[in-house]
Predict the structure.
Amino acid sequence: MWRRRTGGARGGDTRDLAGGTADTGVGKDGAGEPALTIDALGRKCPIPIIMLAERINEVAMRDVIAVLADDPAAFTDIPAWCRLKSHEHVASHELPQGGWSIHVRRNY
Amino acid sequence: MLLEQARAEVAELLGARPDEVSFTSSGTQAVHLGVLGALRGRRRIGRHLVTGAVEHSSVLHAAEVHEHDGGTVETVGVDRTGRVDAAAFAAAVSRPGTALACLQTANHEVGTLQPVAEAAQACLAAGVPLLVDAAQSAGRLPVPDGWSILTASAHKWGGPAGVGVLAIRKGTRWRSPYPQDERERRRVPGFENVPAVVAAAAALRARVAEEAAQGPRMSALVDRIRAEVPRLVPDVEVIGDPVRRLPHIVTFSCLYVEGEALLTELDRAGFAVSSGSSCTASTLRPSHVLEAMGVLTHGNVRVSLPRGVTDGDVDRFLAVLPDVVRRIRASLGVQ
């Protein structure tokens, strides 16, 4: 089927759902390495988003947080959360073990 | 006799000729037969199928079969409201080798109306048949012109379950994907369920007759829910097109809430709603509609207003919802 599958049927693919930036490569996040990484692997939505919302203020303004998540809902919901909360979804990178590292920039 | 009377009636109400209309055992079967039969009928012309990204699963699963069978499928994306990109759809159908295009009249999860008129124009220009899945809107809204194949489902217009409609426009190439059978102009195998078909025709007539009054009333209730829910509940995204939509469906997602918990709590309060959240699906995946739209998939609630819903029912829903959401959020440690 043509729907996205977890575990990388489309292999090594990155997507920018926020439409805010054309860059999707890890090295092109502007800030480089994320200032903070939240491990939400194995956690079901909405938990990864609650973890992100709780901790986004721990990084400096314009810094990037990476959320590691493998619930398929997180792939759609974290960019949607960014849109609703006026933060920036920078990119989502597929992880070799399945799931994604979803990069979010704190805007305020 | 009864069957032919029902056929004539359904045909007239849906804007088809009686000999174009066949009855199936469900809307899903109508879609399966419509998609696979049209592809089979045009096999020599091409094996490319174009569909919208938020079609009913019956369309997507038929497309899957086509792909397994060596055909190709192109899915046209939607905007944030769930509306198919008409220009992209037109570009896709004009690709050489396109055998069939499929588009729903309205989305079953978020209510957004699709650009069927534009799609039909593009299909006509490209000489490609268009299957219009009118399951959500038949009886509520006029069936748009320009279809080659039309599908619908009786229980969606208040008829009995177990009756679908497959209409094939005269001149459309179509070959049954099943072994040959005599029933329903060799389009649908097996005997028709005549009593249910008669009931379906009566229900369609009744729905069309009452929709002039009921449609605007329901639509106003949906407007009210769309306006009030974000006012009463913090961190809610109301989903779908606010204007170009079905009269009776409204969908929203609540941040930091599990869809399953929301369904259970609302059920306890006497409201049967649906959800596109992954935790409510057997596949543990969010709905493909919400994913394609790029909207919040967790904490999702779809309200389908039933026939006879009152202002008081909506008042009560709006009174109950804020506290239900607050309690679920509190249980997850969200203030």
Notes: Residues 194-232 of chain B form the longest helix (39 residues). The radius of gyration of chain B is 20 Å. Chain B touches chain A at residues 60, 63-64, 67, 73, 75, 235, 237, 255-258, 277-279, 284-286, 288, 290-291, 294-299, 332-334 (CB under 8 Å). The first strand of chain B starts at residue 21 and ends at 24.
